Amino acid sequence: MKIVVLCGGLSPERNVSRSSGAMIAAALRELGHAVVLTDMYFGLEDYEGSLENIFDNPPEDFGTAIGETAPDMEAVRAARRMKTDSQFGDRVLELCAMADIVFMALHGQCGEDGRVQAVFDLLGIKYTGSGHLGSAIAMDKDLTKRIVAPLGILTPEWRVYELKGLDIEAACAECRLPAVVKPVDSGSSIGVSIAHTEDELRSALKAAAGESSRAVVEQYISGREVQIGILAGKPLPSIEIRPLKGFYDYKNKYQAGAAEEITPAPIPEETEQRLAQSALTVYNALGLSAISRADFILDGEGRLWFLEINTLPGMTPTSLVPQEAAVLGISYPELCQRIIDASMEKYL
User: What CA–CA distance (Å, rounded) separates 310 from 263?
Assistant: First the structure.
């Protein structure tokens, strides 16, 4: 197959995405596919070859390293030579239209929120992962919780705040502490803070305002962080995350050795089954497909608290879904192929 691996984009998670994309491209070539790896925001600015022959003579791949902090978006914008407001870089759409399928290695607001999927749907471009509507809903933490809570999915109590012009003092007065503050539509724990005091809550709301127009202030649940992937409608083995310091933030997610990751998670079989069923309930309620990863907290009383679901989970050297798949004997290249095969079913 001719496959474009689309990554990067104008998102604080762009470096994570580029790492995922580089690994996916290498794996797909190992399987014999003709692959072009491209950054959605920059496109083919530096490619000197012919677009017609690009699958035979692809641009050079980039590396998989991820820094400890998210990139500066203003610096990213300034670095692009094509000075337009379009988030699609040089010849990106033309390139994607030439592929048999686009492997979506995008993360965050640019690529995981349904907008790119909607463009591809209108243009008749096939792509991996969930469709535009499921992607958009899953990216919105508030909307996701509103949909799944009535289905019996236990989720922490939450409030949503419009951050522009927010009366921070009024918000602090009505929020119960400790609380977790999250931008409503970001991933990789960017802009996420745990507030134990009103001063910390004020700072957290200001930090979230730098990442999104809205924030979720969520009841803090103490417990073990367990996550579970869904591949082609079937649960993978769970995984438990134990950061060596602090919580599972951007640094602990992507720096090797910053967290202990145990799969299958050391939990009772009955808990594993409840975890899988809860994740499937969310997956089906949102109309997702191909691949996802759901995040939960297992508290001291054995209750599972749903936090969020990711429609384009990471595929980096430290990512969780590849570790879960490996427990079943599914290699990284095979995982990539299974994602493609499951994604093609929505076009049958």
Answer: 18
Does residue 289 contact residue 339 with C-beta atoms inside 8 Å? Answer: no
- Does 243 or 292 have the greater pLDDT score? 292
Q: Where does residue 192 rank: exposed (0-12), middle (13-18), buried (19+ CB within 10 A)?
A: buried
The pLDDT tens digits of the residues spanning 3-54 come to 999 999 998 888 999 999 999 999 999 999 999 999 999 999 999 999 999 9
Q: Please report the DSSP string for 8-39 in residue order.
A: --SSTTHHHHHHHHHHHHHHHHHTT-EEEEEE
User: Active-site positions?
Assistant: 13, 188, 319
Handedness of CA 327, 328, 329, 330 (dihedral sign): negative
- Which residue, 156, 113, 161, 159, is CA-closest to 137? 113
Torsion of the alpha carbons at 303, 300, 193 and 163, rounded to the nearest 10: 40
Long-range contacts of 254-260 (CB under 8 A, 24+ apart): 254/16, 254/19, 254/66, 254/68, 254/188, 254/316, 254/318, 255/66, 255/68, 255/318, 256/317, 256/318
Query: Up-side HSE of residue 152: CA atoms within 13 Å toward CB?
Result: 7
- Binding-site members for Mg(2+) are 295, 308, 310
Q: Which residue ranges are tagged as binding site?
A: 295, 308, 310
Q: For residue 327, what pLDDT is reported? A: 96
Q: What is the pTM of this model?
A: 0.90
